[in-house]
Predict the 3D structure of the following.
Amino acid sequence: MVRFVVRRLISMVLVLFAISVLTFLIFQAIPNGDPAVRMAGRLATPEQVELIRESWGFNDPLWQQYLTTMEKILSGDVISYTQQLNVMDQIKQALPATLSLAIGAGIIWLFFGVVFGLFSAIKAGRFTDRALTVLALVGVSTPVFLLGAVALYFLAFKLTIFPNGGYVPLTEDPIDWLYHMILPWAVLSVLFIGVYSRILRSNVLDTMSEDYVRTARAKGLSEKRVMVRHVLRNSMIPIISLWSLDFAAVLGGGAILTESVFNLHGVGQYAADAIQQLDVPPVLVVVMLGASAVVVLSALTDVLFAFLDPRIRLTG
Amino acid sequence: MAIDPATPDTTGSGAIRTASGDSPVAAEPGGGAPSAGIGPYRLALRRLRRNKVALAFGALFVLIVVLCFCAPLYADHVAHTGPNDNHVTDTVTVGGEEKDVVSVSGLPIGPTWQGRFLLGADQNGRDLAVRLLYGGRNSLEVGFVATFITMILATIVGLAAGFYRGVVDGVLARILDLIWAYPVVLLGIALGTSLALGGISIGPIELSGNSLLVPAVIIGVVYIPYVAKPIRGQVLGLREKEFVDAARVQGASSLRIMTREILPNIASTLVVFLPLIVANAILLEAALSYLGAGIQPPNPSWGTMISDGIRLIPSAIHLTFVPGAMLVLAVLGINVFGDGVRDALDPRARVKIDAKGQEKFREDPMEIAVEH
Amino acid sequence: MTEPERLLDVENLRVSFRTEEGLVQAVDDVSFHVDRGEVLAIVGESGSGKTVTGMSLMGLNRSANSRYEGRATLRGRDLLAASDADLRKIRGSEIAMIFQDPMTALNPVQRIGHQIVEQIRAHEDLTKAQALDRAVELMERVGVPRAKERLRSYPHEFSGGMRQRVMIAMALSCSPELLIADEPTTALDVTIQAQILIELDQLRRETNAGVILVTHDLGVVADIADRVAVMYGGRIVEQGTLDELFYDPQHPYTWGLLGSITRIDRDKPGRLPAIAGLPPSLLDPPRGCHFRPRCPHEFEQCVEVPKLEVRDPSKPGHCDRCWLSIEEKRRLRTVDGDFGLAAKKQAVA
């Protein structure tokens, strides 16, 4: 176990290092990306630009710039180029919205994905199965931003059932929070429900043809018990790992589109805005945050996995 | 994580799961079905032909592709205008009545159901139908080129990693993990925004910022791990098979074994992935364009048209609805068709009854979950 | 000696499945019975319908695509006509089944103890602790050492032989009257096979349960069967006591089977003769006797389906499906001094 944790920590550090270097290099390679020019404004003289360059350290060798930036990130006082605000504070402000989105949508898509997938598998080959399959395919074929915009138009603009985007902190007004989150949850979930129900369906069908399910029936267990304890339980194991990775991605700012459409001011939207300004520090921090979420959650998943499936040993 | 070698892979690491290394073709080295004497692909084709729903949706996709690639014909002979031609101050005659293309208050005209402005105009007075077809052409081109890049690179990476194992595998696996762990859309926006601003020049290759190849390359790279990982897994299994040993004993070179012995056996996996990647590439292009990191204006694409339209949803919903419906139909078409191809290639996917009367339903699930 | 008590009566069982390729008549007019305490072996190659027969009795292959005809009465109750709910109560308590591959027949992610307890509690109103006690007893009875600790193990921590013992313990957990063992030794090492067979035989004596042993291995049959039914192409082609079948085989297919086993007591050099040709396709079976295309003694009458009938009135339990007269059979069945099947003459074009 100790070995597992250590190895995972090492790999996390490596991933974070590689990802931060990669991000840093991408922004360095941008032809018009000189941050000093942008910071100085349109009317700046070359001297002013040079001054900014000097004071922000943009003239240092690349590796030194990287080290300085990383040091600032790790000590928590990294400042964005354009707004000149502390990035950590900004992300802390954005995090509740993203957390709300990820947790709520994650529960919804897992639940409905499993329910639809199971139902589809039980009715395999029949009309219900076909209908659910087509629905799932419609779900995975519809862009989130399109669905979100159309939903906003009809449900928020025309019918005014839901608010027109925005985020209300849970601590401020739980009812209003829920009111604002329902549409984003639903819209983000549609894609994942489509994907999950199809994966679960095929997992269930796979499991149903396993010998041990036949054994379970031969033991005289009720059909419900066979389905829940033997088929569903064993089919859920891969779904859990998939879920934690997707959850991590949304948590790490992966739901940029949903956040933008509903104007949630979450981590993803923050990063997207920063990218459009070619503002490196926020992007670096969000990307590293996202990657850490993926690495940590996948390690947790492996632990959970070893618990759920005794054949698996943790070796990192 | 290690799995008891005696047990099948149930982990499904990442967003894609495939049955490890036993595709329907892989089960029969040499690719010949033993009993009936029909090749597995012929058999698959026969099954696909019976799946009318998949064929209909496939036909829908083909129809959209053909229409989009005929965009210049439509522009020249029906609409008499180009995709980027503004007609803000023009008028059009609808039912004998003279109407402004864009009203004084800035509202674009809706569908006229005639040659000019068939589906209406956008806020710049550009013919929506013309832009829809040209935009579709751009979206599809990006999708196809991206898929081509993904498939080629993923096959090479997967083959090399699975076949050579060891250091090669280790390095390639880390690179794939890196692309995987990197938030996909963020990566896309980062690359898209940066490249769109200044283009890129790596050695002899030079791309201008508004080249279609920029988003195509980005999207192509993003999906590599989704294809390369399962291929690597299959190759790992295949390289231990007797027919590979036999080829090796006969003195075949590594390259020859990879291309002649292993490649044909992973071909069905590649065929299954092809429509899936095309669909996802088109969707990701739309998402990137929506965020301003895809195809650059004034060039149309379904994604840019939708994102332009969304701003005007309350006053002119057709600007969102028309390209949106087209995009969803095209992607749905290829997705349903791809689903049919998968079912056809993998006989286990269908409700089957074996000789013991056990119902067998099996399929290799391969799914991509990227927000788009 | 008391009259044996009849446990199971199968009459004219027919099982068919709709498949992608067409209708498969997996079991065609099969009749047999099992008495208490006796072992009936059903022998045949894969695809002969022997496993389907066993599974049909438990309704394990019931689906929208399967059809059953005939009757299978277990102590007066028709298993084929039973509702799913009734059948569920019978499964595991009155009829239990042991499967071929103990590697895959146990749920890999549940503890052995749980899997046994689950079955006990599905049929009897016991607490978990009581059921666990019984599980320990059962495991000890089938020869699993340190039974109490091993209940907490997972299937992958057991060897193949031990897993099959667990399967047997599980099957016995509710004292079934009928035990269906589907190739219980096929997936095991030869030495383990013998142990498992001895175990089964002993348990049969102790519990007085009837056993249907489904196998393709005549060696296994010779070890513990009382009576034997030989299946070919979905039909029983010959049925009789062990001695009748081994020393007075009536059907050419049985001769072929007997001719293709290794005999320690005979010095027979050279290759073991195999039966030429392929088993029949159940999608499109040959007309009449299913063995006709492979049979060297085929004649005109063979295009009609022979009935399963007693041919020698002095042996009322011995019946077969072959049109040859009993004298012809006794003349034709020996090849080189042993039972065997002569080579089929090639038709001259």
The longest helix of chain B spans residues 128-164. Residues 5 and 237 of chain B are 12 Å apart (CA to CA).
